[in-house]
Amino acid sequence: MGLSAGASCAVALCAGAAAWLAAAQDHGRRRARVLFVDGAVRPSLRARSEQAGVWLRKWSGERREWLCVPVALLVAVLGESVLPLLAGAAAVPLVRRWLCGRALGKERERRAAGVVALCGAVVGELRAGHEPGQALLVALRGTGVMGAAEAGVIAAARFGGDVPGALTQAAREPGLDGLAGVAACWRVAVDGGAGLAAGLDRLEGALRAERRRREELRAQLAGAWSTVAVLALLPVLGLGLGAALGADPLRVLLHTPAGLTCLVTGGLLEAAGLCWAARIVRAGEAA
């Protein structure tokens, strides 16, 4: 009965949304005729739409973990229990931590790629006849690859400071490990008179080869991550199959002592299995 009521509520919501869209379609056409003059959008409307788009992209990129709440609310309505809503609220910080980890990983990869591009740019400027400090300044212009540490490197290169020391300091940031090699090449070129362009050229090739190996390893482990995702979705598919057969699994799990016991035990086992599988895959990535 609970499932039928929830389904009826969902159907009613969908029908209301369809009716609202149909009523708003003609109004949108009339508004478009007013807003578009000779095929061009009014500047104020364009600026507002761009601001709204930026805000929406920023919100979707920074607040995606809050999508757990409406999903949990839907399950709570269908199961006629507050437990899914509490679980969804508890999942928000966990999902936020996972998303932050993914964002940090992408930022680390972006910085590593920036270091490789920086080596190539410095080599090009050196071979064009620039001095090492000037070549580094030109290569760093507008890249932002070093983040907060970039100011110290620029100051050292512009005013004749300790450029290798500044590069070594910047190499401590995540994803900037390759700058330690740049600092070593710079120090050898200054102290021993070796060619900086040749050293940076070899360093760029080594960094590109290492990045290529990481990409190949990530491609090989994509199947393992897909297996982990499938294992995570199996309980959800089981609930859907049970609901399709008319067993009403949500009522059993959320309103009976045996169902609550199975739900807690299964949740703990699911979390342990996912953590174990993810640890195995990460161990392969680290190797």
TrEMBL record:
Pfam families per UniProt: T2SSF
Keywords: Cell membrane, Membrane, Signal, Transmembrane, Transmembrane helix
Transmembrane residue ranges: 221-246, 258-281
Cell compartment(s), UniProt: Cell membrane
Keyword Aminoacyl-tRNA synthetase set for record: no
Signal sequence annotation: 1-24
Topology in membrane: Multi-pass membrane protein
Domain Type II secretion system protein GspF positions: 123-240
UniProt-recorded name of the protein: Type II secretion system F family protein
Provenance organism: Streptomyces sanglieri
